[in-house]
User: Fold these one by one.
Assistant:
Number 1:
Amino acid sequence: MNPFLKDLVGAGTRTTLAVYLVDLLPEEYRELGKAAVVLVVGVWSFYQKYVGRQKLLTAAASSVSMSEAEIIETIANGRAVRVTTPAETVPLIRPSR
């Protein structure tokens, strides 16, 4: 499945499930349930932004064209570019350990 479409379907499913589950809570716990959903969504969003930036900078630092699978493998091997690399700096892939 196309990664973008997969993310879109996943987001819709998670949202629908979260709304449904919060509605199942007893009235006195609904506000707490809503706060928990907001917290989880915030953490998930931060994680997705982090991973996306890591992939973008690792791809930009590569001297050759790479598939997304190759970028993920490069990151898994500990050679990811730091996500805190400033926009005006050319990213560099870390040497192998």
Number 2:
Amino acid sequence: MFRKFALPALTAIRAAGTVGGLMTSPATASAQPPATFDHDHGHGRFQVLVRHPLHRDVQGTYRNRVEAIGVARRLERQGLDTRIERVR
């Protein structure tokens, strides 16, 4: 019989505590700027360079070497001389 009265009472106390806790929380957001993260973790970036008679042009900059190799191979199949350089 005690359980019949105790369970609803505890549930009501818990619900009141949850609602009360939500009511007392601040309604405004903090004014701090969003955090920025360095996703490269020291790995650097890779540039694909295409050779021309007097200079090299940057074809693109890629996050990882696999992407850079894929682009370089595609350009080589088109008859261009390519080179991959790591940029920090």
